[in-house]
């Protein structure tokens, strides 16, 4: 297979995702009715396997991925990089915090011409195998190009791994003799001025609550001016109040509320999310940290100080409110260009 064939096949996957998520049978794709129904059933069943993966969340993830999977985007994204013609092997250790979160690494590996050995997270090990089976319907060669959940990663030329900061310490030791790209915990922040419209504040709710706040692009920290009132913010995010009906999210909300009240820590509480003042970046689930700033220079200083922990910043002078969960194909995790990194492995 050459890169043009890979791009053509990925475009077919993009059309397939669109047809499934929109339930529009008029969108053409080359996949069988059987595997299409299998994928639809898997999406509906995911919540019973992983309580975080409600069907709408899975569809949201697939819709976001489908925006990358068109010929113009894929050609522009890959054309300046090397292609290994599948004579090299890339090991992938994928996260499972949001549906199909590791697909971008799979995409980069295929567009760079690597065979893939993929270790799936137990939290997200049902969707990608169906996608691989779909690719194999187009071309049986994918069955030998992509190996899922091998007993042990072996014979790889490079590895990309995502995990907790503690896990990365193990990865760094284990893969020290092999080219490796390792990613740890990151999160995102929003900068408010007090002059945001109701629409903008509601959009921040999308940045916060999509995927229940479990992704590195979810906003978990607010930077607000001194004497900021949260009344307008709380009113604007009310459309997201149903998140607390998810059993896992609701349990986290109840637990963290009880723990912090028992310790007599000051909280702002609107019934489905907790706000606590802190300069830290990684609150427990169902909680947002916030801190006050006096000047825009304070904002920039904080972002610079925490840059190794921040994936995305939203605000009027940053990424648009509501955009954090809709990254472009070139919005690389940790700001490291995966395609460039793979090019260096090839060369």
Walk me through the structure.
The chain has 347 residues and is α/β, with parallel strands linked by helices. It has 2 domains: 3-184, 3-Layer(aba) Sandwich (Aldehyde Dehydrogenase, Chain A, domain 1), CATH 3.40.605.10; 187-315, 3-Layer(aba) Sandwich (Aldehyde Dehydrogenase, Chain A, domain 2). Helices cover 42% and strands 16% of the residues. The protein contains 13 helices and 11 strands. The protein has helices at residues 3-22, 33-49, 55-66, 71-78, 103-111, 127-138, 142-145, 165-174, 198-209, 231-236, 247-262, 296-305, 338-346; strands spanning 88-93, 114-119, 146-148, 158-162, 180-183, 187-191, 219-225, 268-269, 274-277, 287-293, 310-315. It has a 6-stranded mixed β-sheet, with helices on both faces. Strands 3-2-1-4-5 form a 5-stranded parallel β-sheet, sandwiched between helices. Helix 9 links the parallel strand 6 and strand 7. The two termini are 20 Å apart. The mean pLDDT is 95.
